[in-house]
Design goal:
- The protein is α+β, with helices and mostly antiparallel strands.
- It contains nine helices and 31 strands.
- The strands form six sheets. Strands 13, 14, 16, 17, 18, 20, 21, 22, 23 and 24 form a ten-stranded antiparallel beta sheet that branches.
- Strand 29 and strand 30 form a beta hairpin.
- The radius of gyration is 23 Å and the shape is globular.
- The structure holds MU-OXO-diiron and calcium ion (3 copies).
- The site of one calcium ion has 4 residues, from loops.
C-alpha cells in the first residue's frame, strides 16, 4: 500500500468483479459533482440521471421494508464511495472548511492553529444530528455535532517528518482534534449544505477550556501545576464516538487518549500513579505524536497528573455556543468508545459504554435522579450522580451488572481504594477485581428504541486464544477473532436499570463462506460480507445499521455501512448499503428523524499514504484526501433503505 496509480485502481475494479457497473458510473458522476463543491445540483438533473441509470428497478421485489439492492463490496484500493441504485452521495463538509464567518479557507501551505480552530477538524468520527430549533424534530435543519478523533500529520503537512514535527505542526494538530458543531440546512430540492458563520458553529479542540465534574473533580490526582483545583482542563482528545441525550446535549467520548502522554516510565515504580498509567497503556517512553516536545502537560515525567484528566465522557450543549463542556467523571475512566443514552421505565437515565481495547469491558451507568422532559436544563448534571456497573456474561446466556462502587465487594482500602473517586480513576482495575468479562474490543453499545434490546459491537480481537492470553468463552467464541461480532443483550423485563440480563449472539462477522460466521440464522448465501463492526444506529423500523472499521485487513474489502433487520424472517439478513473509499473507516452513521438522509463520516481516507504519495485523492481529486462527512439520500427522497 502507499502507492496508487490509475492502473492499480483499474485493476482493483476488475479484481472486485465490478466492471463498469452502475455503482462505478454513479461514483464517477458523484465525484465530479463533489468537485463542484457546493454548486447547485437540481433535483431534476439528479432524477434524470437516476432514471437513465435504471434506478428503482429492484424496488418492491422483496417483502421486507428494506428494498434496496445491496452494493457490491469494493477492493481496498478502490477510491470512491458506492451507494445503491436510486441513491446519491454528496460531500457535506471536509477537513479545513471554514466554520466561522472570519475563518480563512484552508491553505495547505499556510496552516496555523488559529485558522484550524475555526475550521472543520480532522478525522471525523461520531456524527449527531440535532434538529433545529430544539424540540422541533426537524429533518431539514439541524446542528451537526462531529467528533474529530485524531490526525494523520503525514496527510496534513507536506514533507512531514514524524521524528521532528515543528511546533506549528503540533499545534495545528491539537486544534484539529476535538469536535465541531455546525449548522446545516436542506434545500427545498433536497440537498444539504452547511451554514458558514452560523452563531451555533463552534470548534472544540485540544485546548478548549472544559470543566471536570462528578466524584473525581478536585481529586488529588487531577491537580496539575497549571490547575491546582483539579477541576478545569485544556481540551478533549481522541473523541471517537458518542451519543445524544434526550435533553439535546451530546456526549463525546475520549478513547485512545493515553497515546498523547509520554515518559510514564520515568515515574518511580512505587508511585501508584505509575501503576495506573501502565494499566491504561500510557507510553513508558516518548509518544508517537511528540506533542510533549512543546507542551510539558503531555510529558508525564514533568506533569504526572495531566493524563488523569482524560479518559472521560464529555457533555456538550450544541444549542448553547457559550456552554463550557463538562467531563462527567461518574461514568468512569477508560478508553470510552462512546456513551449512549436511554431512559428507563422509571425515568432514570442509563448510559451504555464500551472500553475499546482487547480484553476490556462493557459498562452501564444509571443516574440517581430522573429525567425531566419539561425542563431541558434540569437534566444537565444528571450524569454526575449514579451507579456505574460492569458486565459479566455467563456461558449459559445469562449475565449480570456488577456495581463498580467503593466499599462493595473487593473495592475497598485493602485494594487501594479510599473513595468512589479512586474507584473511577482506576475503573479498569476495579472491573478486573470484580471479575467482569473480558471482551473482544467493545465499540458502540446502543439501545434499539423499537425493541429495547441493547446491541454491542465487538470489533475484533486478534489475541483471543493466543499464548498467555484469555481463551474463548461463549460470548467471545472465536480465537483470533479478526472480523468481530455483535451481541444482543436483553435487560430483565426490558428494564434498563436491571442488574441481570440475557444475551445472545446476533452476528459472527466475516465472509459468508467462512464456516465460523453466523448471521442470526439467516441464509448465508444471501448476505453481504461484513467485518469489524464499530458504530451502530437504528432506523425508525428498528433495523440495526452498522458502520465498520477494519474490513480491508480482515476480509480484503473496503469498510462500509450495512443494515440488518433484528426481528422476523429477515433477522440476520445483512446487506451492504454503502462502500467507502480507499484507506477509510466508516463512522457516524446518523439518520435524520424522517430517516430520509443518512450522514456518514469518512474517516482517514487514504491512510497509509502521504501528501507526496497519496493513496486516495477523495473527495477533491486534487492532491491529498480529506476526511469528510457525506450525506446519502434517495433520488426520490424515499426513506433510506426502503
Ligand atoms: Fe475509535 Fe473504538 O474506534
Ligand atoms: Ca469507533
Ligand atoms: Ca451510535
Ligand atoms: Ca474502531
Amino acid at each position: 500500500m502507499g502507492s496508487h496509480d490509475e492502473n492499480e485502481q483499474c485493476g482493483a475494479r476488475s479484481a472486485a468483479g465490478l466492471g463498469d457497473g452502475f455503482e462505478q458510473i454513479l461514483a464517477r458522476r458523484l465525484s465530479r459533482r463533489d468537485m463542484l463543491k457546493g454548486a447547485a445540483v437540481t433535483a431534476s438533473a439528479a432524477l434524470t440521471g437516476a432514471v437513465g441509470l435504471g434506478a428503482g428497478t429492484a424496488a418492491a421485489q422483496k417483502a421486507s421494508a428494506l428494498r434496496f439492492t445491496a452494493v457490491t463490496p469494493t477492493d481496498p484500493k478502490f477510491d470512491d464511495v458506492v451507494v445503491p441504485e436510486g441513491y446519491y452521495a454528496r460531500t457535506l463538509i471536509r477537513w479545513g472548511e471554514p466554520l466561522t464567518a472570519t475563518a480563512p479557507t484552508h491553505n495547505l501551505w499556510e496552516q496555523t492553529p488559529a485558522a484550524q480552530a475555526e475550521q472543520f477538524g480532522y478525522n471525523c468520527d461520531f456524527v449527531g444530528f440535532l434538529p433545529f430549533p430544539y424540540g422541533s424534530g426537524a429533518s431539514n435543519r439541524g446542528l451537526l455535532f462531529v467528533n474529530h478523533e485524531y490526525t494523520n500529520p503525514e496527510l496534513m503537512f507536506p514533507s512531514f517528518d514524524a521524528k521532528n514535527p515543528s511546533q506549528n505542526q503540533v499545534d495545528v494538530q491539537i486544534a484539529a482534534h476535538g469536535a465541531s458543531v455546525v449548522e446545516i440546512v436542506r434545500a427545498p430540492e433536497g440537498t444539504w449544505s452547511y451554514v458558514q458563520g452560523s452563531q451555533y458553529n463552534r470548534r472544540l479542540t485540544g485546548e478548549t477550556t472544559m470543566h471536570i465534574s462528578g466524584p473525581v473533580a478536585g481529586h488529588e490526582w487531577l491537580k496539575t501545576s497549571e490547575d491546582p483545583t483539579g477541576t478545569t482542563v485544556h481540551g478533549t482528545l481522541n473523541n471517537c464516538s458518542g451519543g445524544k441525550t434526550p435533553w439535546g446535549t451530546v456526549l463525546t467520548a475520549e478513547e485512545n487518549w493515553h497515546q498523547y502522554f509520554g515518559n510514564a516510565g520515568k515515574l518511580d515504580k512505587s508511585d501508584p500513579r505509575a501503576v495506573n498509567h501502565k494499566r491504561y497503556g500510557v507510553p513508558a517512553e516518548a509518544t508517537l505524536t511528540l506533542w510533549e516536545k512543546y507542551h510539558k502537560r503531555f510529558d508525564v515525567a514533568q506533569e504526572p497528573n495531566e493524563a488523569f484528566r482524560f479518559g472521560w465522557v464529555v457533555e456538550v450543549d450544541p444549542y448553547d455556543p457559550t456552554f463550557v463542556p463538562v467531563k462527567r467523571t461518574a461514568l468512569g475512566r477508560f478508553r470510552h468508545e462512546a456513551a449512549t443514552i436511554t431512559i428507563a421505565k422509571n425515568g432514570k437515565v442509563v448510559a451504555y459504554s464500551g472500553d475499546d481495547e482487547r480484553f476490556e469491558y462493557v459498562y452501564k451507568f444509571v443516574t440517581k435522579g430522573t429525567y425531566n422532559a419539561k425542563d431541558r436544563k434540569a437534566n444537565i448534571g444528571l450524569l454526575d450522580e449514579g451507579t456505574l456497573y460492569v458486565a459479566k456474561f455467563n456461558d449459559d446466556g445469562t449475565g449480570g451488572w456488577l456495581p463498580v462502587v467503593f466499599g462493595q465487594g473487593p473495592l475497598t482500602a485493602e485494594n487501594g481504594f479510599s473513595s468512589q473517586a479512586d474507584v473511577l480513576i482506576n475503573t479498569r482495575k476495579a472491573a478486573d477485581l470484580l471479575g467482569a468479562t473480558k471482551m473482544d474490543r467493545p465499540e458502540d453499545v446502543e439501545t434499539n428504541p423499537v425493541n429495547q434490546k441493547v446491541y454491542i459491537a465487538l470489533t475484533n480481537n486478534n489475541r483471543r486464544g493466543a499464548e498467555g492470553q484469555p481463551g474463548v468463552d461463549k460470548v467471545n467464541p472465536r480465537a483470533n477473532n479478526t472480523s468481530g461480532h455483535i451481541i444482543e443483550l436483553t435487560e430483565t423485563n426490558n428494564d434498563h436499570t436491571a442488574t441481570t440480563f440475557k444475551w445472545e449472539i446476533l452476528l459472527l462477522c466475516g465472509l459468508p463462506t467462512d464456516e465460523s460466521t453466523y448471521f442470526g440464522g439467516y441464509d448465508k448465501s444471501k448476505v453481504s460480507p461484513i467485518a469489524c463492526p464499530d458504530n451502530v444506529c437504528f432506523d425508525n423500523a428498528g433495523n440495526l445499521w452498522i458502520a465498520t472499521d477494519g474490513a480491508p485487513s480482515a476480509i480484503k474489502y473496503n469498510d462500509g455501512l450495512f443494515v440488518v433487520p433484528v426481528a422476523g424472517a429477515e433477522r440476520g439478513h445483512v446487506q451492504q448499503f454503502y462502500s467507502s473509499v480507499a484507506g477509510s473507516e466508516v463512522c457516524g452513521p446518523e439518520l435524520t428523524p424522517d430517516n430520509r438522509t443518512v450522514f456518514v463520516a469518512v474517516q482517514h481516507p487514504g491512510e497509509s499514504g502521504t501528501v507526496e504519495k497519496p493513496f486516495s485523492t477523495w473527495p477533491d481529486r486534487a492532491g491529498l484526501p480529506r476526511p469528510s462527512v457525506i450525506t446519502i439520500q434517495a433520488f426520490d427522497s424515499r426513506v433510506i433503505g426502503s
